[in-house]
Amino acid sequence: PEHSPGFKKPPALLRLKRKRPGRRSDPAAAVGAAAAPAPRGPSAAARRRNPFSSLDNTTQRAAAAPQPPAATPAGGDPSAAPFWQFLEPACEEKPSGRAEPAESSDILALSKDLHSPLAVPKAPSLPRQEFPADWSIKTRVLFLSSQPFTWAEHLKAQEEAQGFAQHCRATETTLPQSVQEPRLCTELRCAFQQSLVYWLHPSLPWLPLFPRLGADRRMAGKACPWAQDEALQQVLMSDWSVSFTSLYNLLRARLCPYFYVCSAQFSVLFRAAGLAGSAVPTAAIAPTTRGLRQAMRSEGIEFSLPLLEESTTRKKKNSEESLETESAEGLGGDGSVEDVGEPAPSDDDDDDGSFSWLEEMGVQDKVKKPDTISIQLRKEKHEVQVDHRPESLVLVRGSHTFTLLNFLISCRSLVAVAGPQAGLPPTLLSPVAFRGGTMHTLKARTVSGRTRVQGGFEDVFSLEVLGPVLPHALHALTLVLGPAQRGSFRALLSPHEPSAAFNTGPAPPQEDVHQDLPACGLHPKTLEQLSQCPTLGKSCIRLLEMKDYSYTWKA
Q1: What Gene Ontology biological process does one annotation of this record name (predicted)?
Q2: Which of 401, 422, 438 is the last residue of a domain?
C-alpha cells in the first residue's frame, strides 16, 4: 500500500513543525524582524531549549557561548520572556537581562525542588529536646547521616532473641548519650531490634494488610479462598471479634496504650486514658461519610467533628469581625444603623419543608416537589461536603467507645462485600501483644553512597525502615539513633495520608489529666511524649532532623 510522502521524509516534517510557532507571532514583531538583520548567535529569549538535551549539557553550552542580555520586548508580549520569570513573585523588580548560565542554574534548582521526595514548608521549628507526638502511621522512614549504620546490620541470633525478650517483658533500655563503637555495643543492637516489633491481626503472609484504604490494586490477583465461602468468612470475623475485644479490654485496663483498626473504608484509633491529653479513653475515626455518622447516631453514640467545628467557629468569628467593620463604616457614612444591622437573606430560610406558597399561587399540582431526602441533604450540605476528607474526623470519648466497639463488630460496612478485599476482616495494629495477635517486625536495610557537594563528594549513609511504623516505634528509633549517630541524623517520613487527621487534639484544653500508664509496655520517654496533647492538627511530620541532640521538624 502507498503511504503519504511525509512518512518517507521525517526531517522535512520536523522542520515544518519547527517553523509553525513562528506563524502565530505578532505581525508587528514580524515586520520588525524582517527589517532588522537576524542575529546569528542563539538568543535566550527567542530560541527554545532542546527538550531532548540534558540540563548539564545546556549549562555547559550556555557557559561556552557569549549571550546578549534577554529583555522583554517593548510591545509587551510576555511570550518572549523566559518562562521561569513568571514563577517568581510579581512584586519583585526583575532585572532587564540575565546571562543564560544563571537562568540554567535556576532551571536546575527548580527541577530539584519539583522532584524532591517531600514537599515541606521552608520554615522549620525551633530546636527542642523533644519533637511532638505524631499519631499518623508511617509507611516508610528514611534516616540519613554522615555516620555509618553498619551497627544495624546482621544482628546475631542472641541479639535478635534478646531484643524480642526485651519487647515481650517491656524491659527499659538505658543507653549513654554517645556510643563510641556502635558495632560492638550489644545493648544498642538489642534495643534496635526491640524498637522494630509490632503486633498484627489477621496474619496472612501473602497479602499486604496495611494500608487497607486504596489497596485493591495491590491485592488484585492474590489468593482469597474466603471470597466465595461464607462459612469461612464467619470464622474469620468471629476470630477477629475476639482479638478486637481483647485489645479493647487491655486498653481499658491501661495495659495497652493504643491500637488501630484499619478497614477498606476508614481507620479507627483507640487511645487509652492519659494519652493525647485526655483523661478518658478516646476513639478517632477518619475518613467518615454521612451514612456512617447517621448510623452511629442511630446507635446512640455521641461524637463530635472537631475539625469541622473548628472551621465553622473560625468562619463565624471572621464574619462577625467583618460585620463589625461594616457597622463601623456604616455609622461613619450616610447609611443608618437599621440598614447595617439587617441580616442578609439566607438560602436555608425556605428549607423547612413547607410549600404553602405553591398553594397560594395555585400551582401546587404542576410543580414537582423535592422529596424529604433532598431537603435533608440540602440542610446538611456543609456536613456532606466533608465526606472522605480529613475534616470528616469523628471523635468519640469516654464510655461511648464501648458502644462504638459493639457497633463496629456488627457494622456491615466494616468488611468489603466485593473486590479483592471482600470478606477480609480489618487489620488490627498494636504495640503490645493481644489475643490472636502475631508478632511482626519492620523491615530495615542500610545503604551507603556518595553525594556531590561543593569541592567534591561526601559519604552519605542511610537506614530505610519499611512497614507500618507506629507512633511509639518512631520515637523508639530516635532514642536508639541519637547515641549511635552521635546526635546528628535526618529522617524523611512518608505518612499514610488518611491517618494524618489523628493528630487532632481529642480533649478540651481545660481538661486535667492524671492517669498513669506504667505497665503499658512503652519506654517512659515515649510514654511521656504520647501523653502530650497533639499540636499538629490535621498535618503530620514529614521531615525530622536531630543536630547536637536537639530536634527540628517540618510538617
Answers
A1: nuclear DNA replication
A2: 438
In order of 108, 110, 203, 311, the CA distances from 115 in angstroms are 11, 9, 36, 33
CA-CA distance, 122 to 542, in Å (whole number)? Answer: 12
Q: Which of 17-21, 40-44, 475-479 has the highest mean pLDDT?
A: 475-479
pTM for this prediction: 0.70
- Which burial class, exposed, middle or buried, applies to 159 when counting CB atoms under 10 A from its CB (0-12, 13-18, 19+)? middle
Same-domain pairing of 232 and 282: yes
d(Cα 493, Cα 139) in Å, to the nearest integer?
8
In a domain, 67, yes or no: no
| 281: its cell numbers | 479513653
Q: Which cell is 506 given?
A: 481529642
Q: Over the stretch 174-208, which tens digit does the pLDDT of each residue have?
A: 899 899 999 999 999 999 999 999 999 999 999 99
Q: How does DSSP assign 348-394, residue by residue?
A: TTT-SS--HHHHHHT-TTTSPPPPHHHHHHHHTHHHHTTTTSGGG-E
Which has the minimum average pLDDT: 49-58, 216-225, 481-490, 526-535?
Answer: 49-58
Q: Which three cell numbers mark 278?
A: 485526655
Domain that holds residue 451: 125-198+439-554
**Radius of gyration, CA atoms only, the chain:** 31
Neighbours of 246 (CB within 10 A): 19
Q: Are residues 270 and 394 in the same domain?
A: yes
The DSSP annotation for 475-529 comes to HHHHHHHHHHTTTEEEEEEEE-GGGGGGGS--S-TT-------TTSSS-HHHHHH
Backbone angles phi, psi at 467, to 5 degrees: 125, 180
CA–CA dist 202, 236 (Å, integer): 8
Residues near 242 by Cβ (< 8 Å), separated by ≥ 6? 435, 436
Residues 548 and 452 in one domain: yes
- Provide the grid cell at 359: 398553594
Distance from C-alpha of 491 to C-alpha of 470, rounded to nearest angstrom = 15
Q: Is residue 332 part of a domain?
A: no
Answer whether residue 64 is part of any domain. no
